[in-house]
């Protein structure tokens, strides 16, 4: 998935969807690290960063009641 598309998808996901996606990305990251596939590792790390950012954003909106 292209980074721009991934960011758009992350922004459209619910908290629950992000948590599930995060589990999947962590699973994939584990395998790519074992295979030493740096390209896929970089993609997984990028996705994890964006997922974490969006989770934090959703949490802050929840706290503010929005």
Walk me through this protein's architecture.
The structure is a single chain. This protein has helices at 3-12, 15-35, 38-64. With 66 residues, the protein is an all-alpha fold. The chain has one domain (3-8, 15-65). Helix 1 (3-12) packs parallel to helix 3 (38-64) and helix 2 packs antiparallel against helix 3. The N and C termini lie far apart (30 Å). The mean pLDDT is 95.
Structural class: mainly alpha
Number of helices: 3
Number of domains: 1
Rounded to an integer in angstroms, the radius of gyration calculated over CA atoms is 13 Å
User: What is the N-to-C succession of helices and strands?
Assistant: HHH
On the 0-100 scale, what is the average pLDDT?
95
Please state the overall shape, judged from the principal axes of the Cα atoms.
elongated
Characterize this entry briefly.
The chain is mainly alpha-helical and 66 residues long. The chain has one domain. 88% of the residues lie in helices and 0% in strands.
């Amino acid at each position: 998935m292209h980074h721009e598309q991934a960011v758009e998808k992350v922004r459209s996901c619910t908290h629950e969807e992000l948590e599930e996606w995060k589990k999947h990305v962590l699973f994939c990251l584990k395998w790519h690290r074992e295979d030493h596939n740096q390209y896929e590792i970089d993609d997984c790390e990028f996705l994890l960063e964006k997922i974490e950012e969006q989770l934090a954003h959703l949490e802050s909106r929840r706290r503010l009641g929005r």
